[in-house]
Design goal:
- The chain is α/β, with parallel strands linked by helices.
- It folds into 3 domains: about 120 residues, Chitobiase/beta-hexosaminidase domain 2-like (Chitobiase, domain 2); about 350 residues, Glycosidases (TIM Barrel, Alpha-Beta Barrel), CATH 3.20.20.80; about 120 residues, Alpha-d-glucuronidase, C-terminal Domain (Alpha-Beta Complex), CATH 3.90.1330.10.
- It is about 35% helix and about 15% strand.
- It is built from 17 helices and 18 strands.
- The strands form 4 sheets. The chain has an 8-stranded parallel barrel with strand order 7-10-11-12-13-14-15-16.
- Helix 12 packs across helix 13.
- The longest helix has about 35 residues.
- Bound molecules: alpha-D-glucopyranuronic acid.
Length: about 675
């Protein structure tokens, strides 16, 4: 890897205006001996110089005679909420108020963002506080350097079982802090091989350095943990969470870990899932496992984030009673209230697995006395591998805005995970991140909109998908207003386009098995993964109503009723909840089969529209970036065409019903 060469993403800082002065920095209640503050000033200097050409004067230097000197005043104000800030520009300079160091850092990034987006320094103004206590990135990086579901090169944390620390590490921390991320899990949830040894002396020195670099940007380091560590690295013959010796082993281990890594935030655990070990092996509950670790780590202020992605992955496809969608709720709902205070359950946004359209998991808000965290995926595993354009923030907004009906008012997913519903302090949002060591970090340059967007959204869930897209575009590129509008519309259209040419109306899973790119309509139909569409010659869809698998009944009555009836079920989820005939009339006045044909023809056509729009930006985008993205659009067009023709042909052959418009179907 050439460590000198990588992009600065949205911190590129193009010239915004020609400044007429210089800056000094003053402190009230903070000082630049504090590392996070020192980094905030470093960021201010770097940003303001690039944006306006104005220098930040070394302290003690008085150049006031030569030019106008404005002051950045960094002020400790204990009435500002934790991690929040108040920024306000005037002729004299800019005031940043915060009650702690991280707030100052976020305030400085907000100043730079506002200037990059068109304000003059004296116009800067905002009061902000984070919507979510925890705003995390989950890397699925393996220690051999590969990344599970990675589409942007190799890991920049690991190579050949070693931890890498270089200039790129700091840039990564800068990018994350600039959008308000305050926790990072660096290793894959599937903890195997060398990764099991991250909690041993082999890696403590490097991890300590990494945790310090993160800490200096307000970020806590977390690790994914192997639940079977007592066996795999401890030489024991059990990892039963209720076994006294197992607990004693963990006590010793966690003590050792915190002696060497005092800045560690805690652990993320994938247990009893897809072959990973867990408490079920010993007839124990998920709460037994999570609480044992939670109790052990409590003395050090650490937390346990326990994933709810638990389901039977060896299902017989002939078995129509078992429904994978039910699993999360079935395994976790009964234990609501049993999880200890420093344990958080991390729940994927949908009940299946990051498909382009799924209902919101009924576990979110279904749990009423348990800390909850929402997990989304910006790594585009099922959404186009960072080849196909797919801006995911609209999807995340839908999830956050979803009314669970868990209580009167304060019942959206955003309310639940932020802690507003239960008045708890642990919760938030996590994303499986889409980065790697490619020079542009995200493979597709446009996929960085998801990286940026997730951070911004997790800090402020009230922002709209469009506001976030606009910020990202303005900060990343130097375009005219008209061009920005065009790129913004491309991002905002992209999710729906991807949905149109892939699988219809919430059914999901018509994707090439394992790799998860490109169509394979029956690829998961006769497999063990619990992911079926149940198409026959008359119709398609999974009956998840009270007459079917009963999944719809896992929601609170308002939603259960809505989903249970095909007439009230939101149409984009029709096939998730109902098995319906191809001849069923949709609200559009089209039959289901005609909808499938039309949406696939439209989706492919609209993907070509995206590629054309990109072509029209050629003269305004740096050529390397332009070419990289163009190559991806070429691949996306092939993909869209393949999806269109395979899906349409499949359903034509199954149903024998012709396309009303007589287009070519094979
Ligand atoms: C998906 C994904 C796996 C991943 C798993 C998880 O199934 O394909 O690669 O390990 O999710 O979230 O744990």
């Amino acid at each position: 890897m050439d460590t000198k060469k990588w992009t600065q993403l949205w911190l590129e800082y193009h010239k915004a205006y020609d400044g007429d002065g210089a800056w000094s920095v003053a402190f009230e209640g903070f000082s630049d001996n504090q590392v996070v503050i020192a980094n905030a000033i470093y960021e201010f200097r770097r940003g303001i110089e690039a944006l306006t050409g104005e220098m930040v004067l070394e302290s003690g230097r008085d150049d006031a005679g030569k030019c106008k000197v404005r002051t950045l005043t960094i002020c400790n104000n204990q009435s500002v909420p934790a991690e929040g800030y108040h920024i306000e520009g005037s002729e004299k300079g800019i005031l940043v108020e915060a009650s702690e160091e991280r707030g100052v850092l976020y305030g400085v990034f907000a100043i730079l963002r506002q200037i990059a987006c068109g304000r003059k320094s004296f116009e800067v103004k905002e009061s902000a506080a984070p919507s979510n206590p925890l705003r995390m990135m989950n890397h699925w990086d393996n220690m051999d350097g590969s990344i599970e579901r990675g589409y942007s090169g190799e890991s920049f944390f690991f190579e050949k079982d070693q931890i890498i620390i270089n200039d790129r590490t700091r840039d990564y921390a800068r990018f994350m802090a600039s959008v308000g991320i305050n926790g990072v899990v660096i290793n894959n949830v599937n903890v195997k091989a060398a990764a099991s040894y991250l909690i041993t002396d082999r890696y403590f020195d490097q991890l300590a350095r990494l945790s310090e670099i993160f800490n200096d940007y307000g970020i806590r380091l977390y690790l994914s943990l192997n639940f079977a560590s007592p066996i795999e690295i401890g030489g024991m013959d059990t990892c039963d969470p209720l076994d006294k010796e197992v607990k004693a082993w963990w006590e010793g281990k966690i003590k050792e870990v915190y002696e060497r890594l005092p800045l560690l935030g805690g652990f993320l655990v994938k247990a009893d899932s897809e072959g990973r070990p867990g408490p079920f092996t010993y007839g124990r509950t998920q709460a037994d496992g999570a609480n044992m670790l939670g109790d052990v780590i409590k003395a050090y202020g650490g937390i346990i984030i326990w994933r709810c992605f638990v389901y039977n992955c060896t299902q017989d496809w002939r078995d129509t009673k078992t429904d994978r969608a039910r699993a999360g709720y079935d395994y976790f709902k009964d234990l609501d209230g049993a999880y200890h205070d420093n344990v958080i359950l991390q729940i994927k946004n949908g009940p299946m697995d990051f498909q382009i359209r799924e209902p919101v998991s009924p576990l979110l808000g279904g749990l009423k006395r348990t800390n909850q965290m929402l997990e989304v995926q910006i790594a585009q595993e099922y959404t186009g591998h960072q080849i196909d354009l797919c801006y995911l923030i609209p999807l995340f907004k839908e999830v956050l805005d979803f009314h669970t009906h868990c209580c009167e008012g304060k019942d959206t997913v955003a309310d639940v995970v932020s802690g507003r519903t239960m008045g708890n302090t642990l919760g938030g949002m996590a994303a499986v991140i889409n980065t790697g060591n490619d020079i542009n970090w995200t493979g597709d340059d446009l996929a960085a909109a998801n990286t940026y967007g997730f951070g911004r959204l997790s800090y402020n869930t009230d922002l709209s998908a469009e506001e976030i897209a606009r910020e990202w575009i303005t900060m990343t590129f130097k375009l005219s207003k008209k061009e920005e509008d065009l790129l913004c519309s491309m991002l905002l259209r992209s999710r729906e386009i991807y949905e149109k040419y892939t699988s219809p109306l919430g059914i999901g899973w018509m994707v090439t098995p394992n790799d998860h790119y490109g169509p394979s309509v029956d690829g998961y139909e006769y497999s063990r993964w619990g992911t079926y569409h149940r198409a026959d010659h008359l119709g398609i869809g999974v009956d998840r109503t009270d007459k079917g698998t009963g999944y719809a009944q896992q929601y609170y009555p308002e939603n259960a009723k809505l989903y249970n009836d095909p007439d009230s079920c939101p149409e984009e989820l029709l096939l998730f909840f109902h098995h319906v005939p191809y001849t069923r009339m949709l609200k559009s006045g089209k039959t289901l089969i005609q909808h499938i044909y039309d949406s696939h023809f439209e989706g492919e056509e609209e993907a070509r529209g995206l590629a054309r729009d990109w072509e029209s930006l050629k003269d305004s985008i740096p050529s390397e970036t332009f070419d990289r993205v163009k190559e991806r659009f070429d691949l996306q067009l092939n993909n869209a065409r393949e999806w269109r023709d395979q899906v349409n042909s499949y359903f034509f052959r199954k149903s024998g019903i012709a396309d009303e418009k007589g287009r070519t179907i094979y």
